[in-house]
Fold this protein.
Amino acid sequence: MTTLTARGTDTLTRDALTVLQPGFTGTSAPDWLLRRLGEGLASVGLFGRNIASPEQLAALTAQLRAERDDVLVAIDEEGGDVTRLEVRSGSSFPGNHALGAVDDVELTRSVAAELGRRLAACGVNLNWAPSADVNSNPANPVIGVRSFGADTGLVSRHTAAYVTGLQSAGVAACTKHFPGHGDTAVDSHHDMPRIDVGLDVLYERELEPFRAAIAAGTRAVMSAHILVPALDPDRPATLSPRILTGLLREELGYEGLIVTDGMEMQAISATYGIERGSVLAIAAGADAICVGGGLADDDTVLRLRDALVAAVHSGDLPEERLADAAARVRSLARWTSVPGAAEHSGGAPDTGIGLVAARRAVTVTRGEYAAPVTEAPYVVAFTPVANIAVGDETPWGVAAELERLLPGTETGSFSGTDAGAAALAAAGERRIVAVVRDAHRHAWMADSLDALLDARPDTVVVEMGVPQAPPRGSLHVATHGAARVCGLAAAEVIVAG
């Protein structure tokens, strides 16, 4: 009897560890993480803080695999504005909004396949991407250029192409943020967003890209910390049996892994707490708990492990549900570790595909004073506060690329109500290139642009967010994202006129 109890407890503890996807600090695996992998932990989440170079990342993932050869190594690598592989330099790939602007599904598939190849070469086998959110609310503070666009059909076909491309490289796609985070005006990193639309709109708009992803064979789906009263008036999607089990599993027929968004985000941690939130998420139908963007230590792993074990003992979480969740994690690990999973990825790596896509995504509007910039300009960056998903460590803009083309280019970053006047004073007599991000969402930014254009109508305007505001300036360049290659594509246009 004692032996059975001990063995049962051991199995239960292993299952509780298996469903966690924790993060850690540093560029090599800490001892506690390796120890937990030996005890049953099956997934690790990587962030920008864990990555210094492709070589270092490959060494890190090899270190993890030496402890557990089928470990799932996950990363938040969307390309575009949200990059971890190139967190300090900016991405070599444009993000979803740029790909949606081109609207060539084969290009999207090729970009995703090349991104997948780079991840696989570094030992990463699960990507928390793509975002399948339909960015129907222009004021959305957290999705924006992370979405393929505001048209459901466009988002659906590009989501499917992205899933196909990424998985052709043997890297599992994790389509997010179910059931759709596009129609929100609140960032779930900070608070609980709501989507107050009827079921008919949800089914016709939000859910279609997820249907497309499921049809394309997405191996994972990430839930959103959003309240959707038409589906469940009481609980956010991540904690809702109606949404995760009733809608995603039973109605949409999805069989793969369900991953939560980061449990330390305020929408969950400030309302339910991460322990209770994790128990409710698994009970609702989630299979893997993402935690570690902010809370990245052994104590967090042990707290969540023990909360799940205690919930089984108390009857709050059926043991079969936890076992089923753990089995789905192991099933995905088996898929990613099959030799030759990337054999059908479509030929040799195409290292230039990102710049090709970024160039195709640029939209140029020439105004009355249009003329190429032929001498070193002054680049004015009107800088909004970065959302947490993007982070503020990744450089953006056109100054570095213009400096290469026009040596002597200088730049300054400006924000707030007096940004326009300050920028004019700093620029002096030099030609001005003004770089903005979502000018339609920031009144101070629009006012600052007014001040620049009134004083200097030959100013070039580069919009690196969602180009919702009307084009202005002697030359208006919309890049549909702020990846490094988008900045290079814009700089080429500015110099060419």
Observations:
- Residues 1-8, 340-346 have pLDDT under 50 and may be disordered.
- The two ends are 81 Å apart (CA to CA).
- The chain has 18 helices and 14 strands.
- The longest helix spans residues 319-336.
